[in-house]
Design goal:
This protein is of the alpha+beta class. β3 and β4 form a beta hairpin. The chain contains three helices and nine strands, in the order βαββββαβαβββ. Strands 1, 2, 3, 4, 5, 6, 7, 8 and 9 form a nine-stranded mixed β-sheet that branches. The radius of gyration is 15 Å and the shape is globular. 25% of the residues are buried. The model has no long low-confidence stretch (mean pLDDT 96). It has a single domain, classed as 2,3-Dihydroxybiphenyl 1,2-Dioxygenase, domain 1 (Roll). Bound molecules: cobalt (II) ion. The site of cobalt (II) ion (CO) has 6 residues, from β1 and β6.
Amino acid sequence: MIGKLNHIAIAVPNIKEAAEQYKNIFGAKVSDPVEQPDHGVTTVFIDLGNTKIELLEVLGEGSPIQNFIDKNPKGGMHHICLEVNDINTAIDKLNTHEVSITGTGKPKIGAHGKPVVFLHPKSCNGTLIELEEV
Ligand code: CO
C-alpha cells in the first residue's frame, strides 16, 4: 500500500531562522516560505534529493500545529508523509483494520495540492502519518 517517503515534517517556532540554518549551515536546497492560510501553516521545503523536509510554522488562529508547538516550544518532528497510489483504496483498507484517521476520515487537498489523510498516532505507534496520493 505505501510507497516512498515523501517528506518528514518538522514544526518550528521560527521558520525563517530554521530555513536559514538549513540553507547557510547545513548547505541544503531550501524553498522560500509559503503562507498556506487554508492549512493554518507557513511551509518551507528542503529538497534532499531522495526525500524532503517540510518546515511548518503556525499561521493565524486555530492552526493545526498550535497544540504541538505549545507542547514542544523548541519545535520537533510533527509527522512523516508516505506516498500511496490510490488514497481511497488505502482508506478502505485502514478502516477494515480499524486504523484511526483524523478529522472526517475523508481525503482533503493537502498543502501540496494533492489528496491527503492523516492517520492518528494512537493507531500508528505514536507517530502521526500523512498519506498522500501521488
Ligand atoms: Co506534510
